[in-house]
Every structure is written in structure tokens, then in C-alpha cells.
UniProtKB/TrEMBL annotation:
Protein name according to UniProt: LacI family transcriptional regulator
Keywords: DNA-binding, Transcription, Transcription regulation
Keyword Transport included in the entry's annotation: no
Molecular function per GO: DNA-binding transcription factor activity; transcription cis-regulatory region binding
Source species of the chain: Spirosoma pollinicola
All residue ranges annotated as the HTH lacI-type domain in the record: 6-60
CDD domains with a match to the protein in the record: HTH_LacI, PBP1_LacI_sugar_binding-like
Pfam families (alphabetical): LacI, Peripla_BP_1
Superkingdom as given in the UniProt entry: Bacteria
Length: 342
């Protein structure tokens, strides 16, 4: 059995003063004389007194904890975002508490309730692919709880957001395939209710339109942001009589499934079919052939989101206009798409 924790009552009993006097002395209240403060602090130090963090959070209305909800910690993109969040939070005296939605709406709702009820100071969140009802976020936002969305954002709530230029990244990826000589370019998109999926689809279509390339609804198939789902979707594309000779995948997790389907079909990359993803996960460069991708500044996204949230927490009445930080992407061309030297 562990040693008994020292409490304010123990210090008060030892010094024969009230617990309220001890509490005020520990908080350096001007109501308490210097000599009493000195006696309290010396005894607290000698007894190795550690304040109860839950009690302090109730007293100060702050826990110095930030809740972060991500779809999957195992996804390297979100792991890097979290590292950026922690980089800022730790320097500002905040602890980061990580929750996973596992792409499940009900679990996301429970995570939000837990963060709010446990008096975290604010919430950073990238929404689950199955989330179409945002009332759980609206509920706490309407009560003044600070929220910042990143990557997969919610436009229905007027708060700060951090994302990348999904349209421009998708346009650049599609343009790259066109420059490699692809004529029939397909797109394996994410779920269409997600803003990032729609923006990337629009970028893909805009590039085809600008370059006078054919646009066919049959060459656009939706997938969950997972390799297994993308594998099935790509099999459908490859079975078509007018099989595409290029694929832009809405994420690297989708591109991994596309890559597997192309290999399974015995097609060579990039000569028979070129492939490019979006995110530039660390494993992209290790695939065979290495996967071309649109790189996102994940660490910078985490830092930016954390800075915005901490400003909301510390200056609750000052942010009348919501900030939307849109970060730039970068094309990383590798052998899965490189037919020609650009």
C-alpha cells in the first residue's frame, strides 16, 4: 500500500490554522501575512506536499490539459500532427491528452463528452469519416468551449481551422499525371461528405478541364481512407474496358490500396498505369515502386492548430473573427508516376 498523500488539512492541523488560510497562503494571496505564508510554504516543502490537480482545476477553472481527437494514432500523418501539437503545448505549459475516434461517429461523440466533462481547457479535432452530424461539437462550442479543427474540418461551426490547400494539391497531382502523358486519369476519392474529399475532387476535375482531358464519372470511385477499401475500388476501375492509364488517389492510405490492386493485376507502374497519392507518408518512399505523393506539412499543421487553440483559451473574448490557416503542399514525384523527366 502506497504512502498517504499529504493534504491541506494535514498542514493546517500541524500549524494549528484553518484550511482556508493554508489554501490562500499556497496561492500567495495578499490576504495572508508574510510570516504565515513562510511557515505554510516551509512545512509544505518539508512534508513534500503536492496539490491535487483535479482540485486545482476546479479552483482555477483550468486543467492545463488539451484534448486531441484523431481518427487513428497509427496513421503516420496524425502521429506527426500530434508531435507538432505537443511541441507547442509543452512549451506553453499544457499537457496533451490523445483520444481516437477509430473513424466511428459514436466513439467521437463519447470522446467529446469526456473531454468537456473532465474540464479539459480546449479541443483539437480531426473529424471521423463517418461523422455527418456535428451537434456534439456545436453543443460545447455554443457554451464557450474552445475548439479548433484541423485537416478534416467542419465548416458549420464558426471557429479556427487549419488545413492544407487540398484543391491546389489535387490540381498539381493531376497536372503531373497529364505531364507524364496520361490520357485517361481516374480518381479514387475519399467519402464525399468530407470537405477534404470534395476539395480534392474539384482540384482533379479542374486540372482535367484546363488541359482539355476527358472527364468521366465512371473514372471517379469513392473509398474510405483505408487501403482495403481502396483495393476493392481500384479493382473495379481496372476491370473496365477503358481502363485508366493514371490514378490520382485522395490519400496515401488510399494509394496503398491502389498500388496493391495494380500489382495484383500484373500492370507495370508507371508505364501501363501511373499512380500518385496525397500526404507523403514515410512509407511512400519505401514501396516498390516508390509512391509519388503530394506532401502535407503535418508538423506545421499541428503547431498552428495548437497555437490557435491556446490563444482561444487564454484570450476567450478577443477572437470575434475565426481564423482559417491554409498551408501549402508540395509535389513529391517518384517512380510510381515518373514516365518522363519534368
Amino acid at each position: 500500500m502506497g504512502a498517504k498523500s499529504i493534504t491541506i488539512k494535514d498542514i493546517a492541523r500541524e500549524l494549528n490554522i484553518s484550511t482556508s488560510t493554508v489554501s490562500r497562503a499556497l496561492r500567495d494571496s495578499s490576504e495572508i501575512g508574510a510570516e504565515t505564508k513562510k511557515r505554510v510554504l516551509e512545512l509544505a516543502h518539508r512534508l513534500d506536499y503536492n496539490p491535487n490537480p483535479v482540485a486545482l482545476s476546479l479552483l482555477n477553472s483550468q486543467s492545463n490539459d488539451i484534448g486531441v481527437i484523431v481518427p487513428e494514432i497509427a496513421n503516420p500523418f496524425f502521429a506527426i500532427v500530434i508531435a507538432g501539437i505537443e511541441d507547442v503545448a509543452f512549451a506553453q505549459g499544457y499537457h496533451v491528452v490523445i483520444y481516437q475516434s477509430h473513424e466511428d461517429y459514436e466513439r467521437e461523440v463519447l470522446n467529446v463528452k469526456h473531454i468537456y466533462n473532465r474540464r479539459k481547457d480546449g479541443l483539437l479535432v480531426s473529424i471521423a469519416t463517418t461523422t455527418t452530424d456535428y451537434s456534439h461539437f456545436k453543443h460545447i462550442h455554443d457554451r464557450g468551449f474552445p475548439i479548433v479543427f484541423f485537416d478534416r474540418i467542419c465548416e458549420e461551426i464558426d471557429t479556427h481551422k487549419v488545413s492544407v490547400d487540398d484543391f491546389d494539391g489535387a490540381y498539381t497531382a493531376t497536372e503531373h499525371l497529364i505531364n507524364q502523358g496520361c490520357e485517361r486519369i481516374a480518381h479514387v476519392s475519399g467519402p464525399d461528405h468530407l470537405l477534404i474529399s470534395r476539395r480534392r475532387l474539384h482540384g482533379y476535375r479542374a486540372a482535367l478541364l484546363d488541359y482539355g482531358k476527358p472527364i468521366s464519372d465512371d473514372w471517379v470511385v469513392a473509398s474510405a481512407y483505408s487501403p482495403d477499401s481502396a483495393l476493392e475500388a481500384t479493382r473495379v476501375l481496372l476491370a473496365r474496358a477503358d481502363r485508366p492509364d493514371g490514378i490520382f488517389a485522395s490519400s496515401d492510405n488510399i494509394a496503398i490500396g491502389c498500388h496493391a490492386a495494380i500489382t495484383e493485376a500484373g500492370l507495370s507502374m508507371p508505364n501501363e498505369i501511373a499512380l500518385i497519392g496525397f500526404s507523403d507518408l514515410p512509407m511512400a518512399a519505401l514501396m516498390n515502386p516508390p509512391l509519388s505523393s503530394v506532401a502535407q506539412p503535418a508538423f506545421e499543421m499541428g503547431r498552428s492548430a495548437a497555437e490557435l487553440l491556446i490563444n482561444l483559451i487564454r484570450n476567450p473574448g478577443e477572437h470575434t473573427t475565426s481564423i482559417s490557416n491554409v498551408l501549402k503542399t508540395k509535389l513529391i514525384a517518384r517512380k510510381s508516376s515518373l514516365r518522363l523527366i519534368e
